[in-house]
Amino acid sequence: MRLPQGRSRSVIVRVGIQNTMRPDVDRAAVNFLVPMAITPVHKVSHDGQVDSVGQWLPPTVETDHEGKRTDFAVWANHPANFPGRNASLLHFRVTLSHAGTYLLRLKITAPSLADEFNAEAVITAEVDAST
Q1: Is residue 60 part of a domain?
Q2: Which of 30, 41, 97, 117 could form a disulfide with 77 if both were Cys (CB 3.0 to 4.6 A apart)?
Q3: What mean pLDDT do residues 101-111 have?
């Protein structure tokens, strides 16, 4: 993502969750972690309107993609259900003000899952010197 010099930019991050198995994943706990450096973050609908699904928990400290301890904002939703052979999307509006590389982390636990599911993605923001 390119940032106008001296200004912030918001973007909607779509998080896809696909259950490729036949059985449903019921009573799941979903956590989406975003570095505090790119807040504010809002849970939104597909069209960018703030929605009330889930809740924001107090920040937590975890290791980021570079091995540094980082403060993360945590959005949580429980119970969540993921029907078998189906996909769903979560949408978040994040605001980037500074150039950098930022880790986004998704965690899902459920009684039917043997292990916690973890997925990570990195987004990069660069300052556009031509603006």
Answers
A1: yes
A2: 30
A3: 97
Alpha-carbon distance of 94 to 21, in angstroms, equals: 31
Tokens 């500074």 -> residue = 98
| Cα pseudo-dihedral 97, 58, 46, 8, rounded to 10 | -10
- Residues whose CB falls within 8 Å of the CB of residue 14, separated by 6 or more in sequence, listed in order: 89, 90, 91
Q: How much is the pLDDT for 131?
A: 60
* Tokens encoding 25: 């994943």
Query: Which residues touch 67 (CB under 8 Å, ≥6 apart)?
Result: none
* 112 found inside a domain: yes
Query: Is the pLDDT score of 52 beyond 80?
Result: yes
Domain annotation covers residue 102 = yes
**H-run or E-run covering 128:** strand 117-128
Beta strand 25-35 with 41-44 is unpaired
What domain count does the chain have? 1
SS3 label, residue 38: helix
The dihedrals phi and psi of 47, each to the nearest 5 degrees, come to: -100, 10
Whole-number Å distance between alpha carbons of 101 and 67: 13
Q: Which residue has the tokens 């924001």?
A: 56
